[in-house]
Write a structure and sequence with these properties.
nine-stranded parallel β-sheet; 9 strands; globular; single chain; about 260 residues; alpha/beta; TIM Barrel; about 50% helix
Length: about 260
């Protein structure tokens, strides 16, 4: 099933869809698996598997810590790809690789795309790769049916949003506010106006991330977009109380 068909089918039953985030190897791959089981129980549609990196420039303090500790425990790209293959074979949600361009650069573009395809990924998110430099990788991804997910931000001009929309695949990641992940976001008129600008720039579904953490946030996003992205809030729940707290967190979202 193509990604657009998958999204349309899921939207027939729930809006917004949920996309979540797991840092591979933090606090362990065993814990990752239990997190994913809970996410699947609550009907998550997409999961970003983050390949840990030493300088995760788009991430807030909690994810920076998770990246650093995973690397300190010896997590490798090969382990992440092997884990991804296990995940895509076992769970119904779709999986994206989230990381930084250094991973693709060091592996080589062809190897990177081939390994993601073999592991069952539906796409990837590389927030530090500008679209002006992304075309060679995107051509390889297109040939393998992978979706390179582009990011639209509130600081982008309408012209820039149009350029991003022209090369987007699958869906668009709309960054709800300035800064890095982790801090709260005000769901109000300013964000609504930004999402309207994104909607004008693309016909693809919109996914909203950065600071999404409550049922009220999901309701707002469902009125303006198709996908809500929850990252830091879920990891924070796990840090505070493991699987019990994570179950309670997703239960509190009304999903």
């Amino acid at each position: 099933m193509q990604l657009n068909e998958y999204i349309a089918e899921r939207l027939a039953h729930r809006r917004p869809l949920l996309m979540t985030h797991v840092v591979c190897g933090y606090p362990s791959f065993e814990a990752n698996w239990r997190e994913l089981e809970i996410m699947a129980e609550h009907g998550v549609a997409f999961v970003e598997l983050q390949f840990p990196f030493s300088e995760p420039s788009a991430d807030g303090p909690l994810f920076v810590k998770a990246n650093q500790e995973s690397l300190a425990r010896g997590t490798t790209v090969t382990q992440c790809l092997e884990f991804m293959a296990r995940v895509t074979a076992a769970f119904p949600f779709r999986v994206l690789m989230m990381g930084y361009y250094n991973t693709a650069f060091k592996m080589g573009h062809e190897t990177y795309i081939e390994r993601l395809a073999q592991a069952g990924a539906c796409g990837y998110i590389l927030p530090d790769l500008p679209i002006e430099e992304a075309r060679p990788l995107q051509l390889l991804a297109d040939a393998k049916g992978l979706s390179p997910i582009v990011l639209m931000t509130p600081t982008s001009t309408d012209a820039r949003l149009a350029a991003l929309g022209a090369v987007a695949r699958g869906f668009v990641y709309c960054v709800a506010r300035r800064g890095v992940t982790g801090a709260s976001t005000t769901m109000g008129d300013e964000l609504g106006a930004f999402l309207a600008r994104c909607r004008a720039a693309t016909s693809l579904p919109l996914a909203v991330g950065f600071g999404v953490s409550t049922a009220e946030d999901l309701q707002f996003i469902g009125d303006h977009a198709e996908i809500a992205i929850i990252g830091t809030a879920a990891l924070r729940a796990w840090e505070q109380g493991g699987e019990t707290a994570l179950q309670s967190f997703f239960g509190g979202l009304g999903v």
